[in-house]
Design brief:
By secondary structure, the protein is mainly beta. 5% of the residues lie in helices and 13% in strands. The chain is built from two helices and 14 strands. The longest helix is centred in the N-terminal third of the chain and has 12 residues. The chain is elongated. It starts with a helix and ends with a strand.
């Protein structure tokens, strides 16, 4: 038994992990999957580098403050799960994981990423939600194989030009940051299907017309006064969330969204709804609570698939005669 293997076995025993490792204790170098989640682990030994064939490593829900430098020796690693720890920084050696495809670092204490991080060019799924990241280097755009990216609940104020090469990205969550603007390169992501921008300080948007594959668009809890792009170009859009903004009206083009099922515009300053809103035949849920509406358009009664209608806290609105309605709140 080599000294590294011996040291790793000692660490296993010291942390009470023998039951989950006993099958492999004499042949650790052949181990491909290792789940150490929920083990109250405070540190990983450098001897973990002996696990040369490891492809999946799960470390979530522990008390780790850092990852060992030897993590970079796990060249066959494809899936690394480190969610819900206390990790404050990543070792530069993480950039050596050239085969890593899935990386989960949600709910940690990261403020920045090392420059070597951007060598992880095989990444397809990256989740960094609920950290303390303040900015991203422009080299972030080199993660060009990303399909799924979550940066929810961080301290981002500016994204510069980080999306220009992410042509395959289909899911992007930037919610609950401090963004006031979005980079123009966002419009270059042609495959985007879900875009979540909730809880920022956005006052205006870049053109979103190029995102004709969008299915869900969440712009709620921002400072938007208008939607200055042609909504009708988003032909596949099913869910549009605009709650808690500064909107006085909705563009008439919204009535051309022929696949829209959910429209939520609560807590704005709407004085009217588009006259032809009844043309959105697919609409199943409409939320216009907490606005300044005195009446609803007559065409709303043409929404034959509408099941849920939220109209409370306006100016004395009456329930429309829609046979399909299952719920309607009126106050």
């Amino acid at each position: 038994m080599s000294s590294d293997i011996g040291n790793f076995v000692k660490w296993i025993r010291a942390n009470g992990l023998t039951p989950i490792m006993s099958v492999f204790e004499d042949d650790l170098e052949l181990l491909t999957h290792l789940d150490l989640s929920k083990r109250n682990i405070k540190d990983l030994p450098e001897s973990i580098g002996v696990l040369k064939n490891l492809s999946v490593l799960k470390l979530s829900n522990n008390r780790l403050r850092k990852l060992p430098k030897a993590i970079g020796e796990l060249k066959n690693l494809r899936n690394l799960q480190c969610e819900n720890n206390l990790i404050e920084e990543l070792p530069s050696t993480i950039g050596n994981l050239s085969n890593l495809m899935i990386l989960n670092l949600n709910v940690n204490r990261l403020k920045k990423l090392p420059k070597e991080f951007y060598n992880l060019k095989s990444l397809t799924r990256l989740t960094l939600a609920a950290n303390r990241i303040e900015d991203l280097d422009e080299e972030f755009k080199n993660l060009s194989k990303l399909l799924y990216l979550s940066l929810e609940t961080n301290e981002l104020e500016d994204l510069s030009d980080v999306f220009g090469k992410m042509q395959q990205l289909y899911y992007l969550d930037l919610s609950f940051n401090h963004l006031t603007t979005l980079p123009k390169s966002l419009s270059e992501i042609k495959e985007l299907q879900t875009l979540i921008l909730e809880g920022n300080n956005l006052r205006e948007l870049p053109s979103l017309e190029s995102h004709d594959m969008l299915i869900k668009l969440d712009l709620s809890q921002n400072s938007l006064k208008s939607l200055d792009f042609d909504l009708s170009k988003l032909e596949d859009l099913k869910i549009l969330l605009l709650d808690n903004n500064l909107l006085i009206s909705l563009p008439s083009k919204i009535c051309e969204l022929s696949k829209l099922t959910h429209l939520s515009v609560s807590s704005n300053y709407l004085e009217s709804l588009p006259e032809h809103i009844g043309e959105i035949e697919t609409l199943q849920e409409l939320d216009v609570e907490d606005n300044e509406l005195d009446s609803l358009p007559d065409s709303i009664e043409n929404l034959k698939n509408l099941k849920n209608l939220f109209i409370a806290n306006n100016n004395g609105l009456k329930k429309p005669a829609i046979a399909s309605l299952e719920f309607c709140d009126i106050k």
